[in-house]
Amino acid sequence: MSLFDSPDTPETPHKRPLAERLRPKSLDDFIGQEHILGKGKPLRRAIESDHLSSLILWGPPGVGKTSLATIIAQTTKAEFVPFSAVLAGMKEIKEVMARAEQTRRMGRRTVLFVDEIHRFNKAQQDAFLPYVEKGDVILIGATTENPSFEVNSALLSRSRVYALKALETKDLVALLTKGLEELEATCDPAHLEQLAIFANGDARSAYNLLELAASSADNGAITQETLGEIITRKSLLYDKGGEEHYNIISALHKSVRASDADGALYWLARMIEAGEDRMYIVRRLVRMAVEDIGMADPRAVEQAIACMQTVHFLGIPEGDQALAQCALYLSLAPKSDAAYKALKVARDATQSHAAEPVPMHLRNAATKHMKQWGYGEGYRHAHDYGGAITGMECLPEGLAGTEFYQPTDRGVEPRIAEKLTAIRDAKKEFYKKTTSGQ
């Protein structure tokens, strides 16, 4: 009996959840994840030959991480210890490691399965390292979070990461068909596919929905009406603090940047349906307006700020239409990152050039002494000149003449470029006249 085994108790099999009763017992029973478990794939060969190294199973809920670990337990010759990051702490980790060390001295390895390993803090994850390095344990961690962010780099470097994918509809239909047999229920194939689509790649969710449907069906016959009663809202994979949150906002931003209005609306709808904070969405829309549209359509940022005010004023759900309108406007607007690039070039210049003092003619002579010291000397008040243009240099001497902003040929920027060129040429001409004494 392992450290976390429960004493034997009488159990009625049919009382266990359907997902648990139909958990696969071997790799041949395992459905999905062909990219890592297909015939001849490295992970499958390692499991079947019992030549495992520590690994991290990364994927969304209900795709088989725990089932795969259980299969490894049944296939490997090592002692298998399941371990939950939710229930255990440093004390339990030390107990398991001490036992694993004793087991190794007796000539046996320990496979330690750590569910939700991302929930362990850095110190707890560090506690595994010496035992992984010595070979006392083969660590199998399961996580729904990106290991690059949630697993210590030292532990990550000693493990192979396998990414499990959300199950395809056909895989879920195959699982649900087995579920129907187990429940002695019937369902039209089209309705079963509908249930699979609704489960959104999550086998556990699919089994739970099927079990609920079967319990509500007359004589075990699951109909469209039965499904309509239990399916109320699709469960979307979306953790506001997790990677999918950033993946979807990235998809929205890049759809807008690519002028793909349909893509932008879809990803926006995904965020809305998942309950994302509307103010977060608006902040990102404002960023898109200034970063990807900029001076090509200066009204874009006005539209984004108007959207913010509308969403704040109307709330949910009425304000959601303003989000859609703004996303469409930004998608269809001409694109330019010239202003974005210009600021970056200017910021780079502050790092690559000496921080020269402000030229004396640009300084304000706030006191008589400052005027005596030369503050403001040589300043030309623009309103005293034709077109309000002077040849006065407003950059430090080491950067004089630098042109940071380079407009594109999109939107209103061609007109801006024409205006900017005229201003720059006039300044150069004025400067020539003043320096030549004309």
Main sheet? Answer: 5 strands, parallel
The overall strand count is: 7
Q: What kind of assembly state do the chains in view correspond to?
A: single chain
What is the CATH fold-level name of the largest domain?
Rossmann fold
Question: For the record, what CATH class of the largest domain applies?
Answer: Alpha Beta
> Fraction of residues in helices?
40-55%
Order of helices and strands: HHHEHEHEHHEHHEHEHHEHHHHHHHHH
Total helical elements? 21
Distance between the termini: 100 Å
Task: Please indicate the percent range of residues in DSSP E strands (runs of 2 or more).
Answer: 5-15%
Q: What is the domain total for the residues?
A: 4
CATH superfamily of the largest domain: P-loop containing nucleotide triphosphate hydrolases
Detail the poorly predicted runs. Answer: 1-10
Q: By helix and strand content, what is the structural category?
A: alpha/beta
Q: Rough shape?
A: elongated
Strand order of the largest sheet: 2-3-4-1-5
CATH second-level architecture of the largest domain = 3-Layer(aba) Sandwich
Overall pLDDT score: 85
SSE blueprint and pairings:
Layout: H1 18-21, H2 34-37, H3 42-48, E1 55-58, H4 65-75, E2 79-84, H5 90-105, E3 110-115, H6 122-126, H7 129-134, E4 137-143, H8 147-150, H9 153-157, E5 160-163, H10 169-183, E6 186-187, H11 189-199, H12 203-216, E7 221-222, H13 224-230, H14 243-257, H15 261-273, H16 278-293, H17 299-314, H18 319-332, H19 338-352, H20 368-372, H21 413-436
Parallel strand pairs: 1-4, 1-5, 2-3, 3-4, 6-7
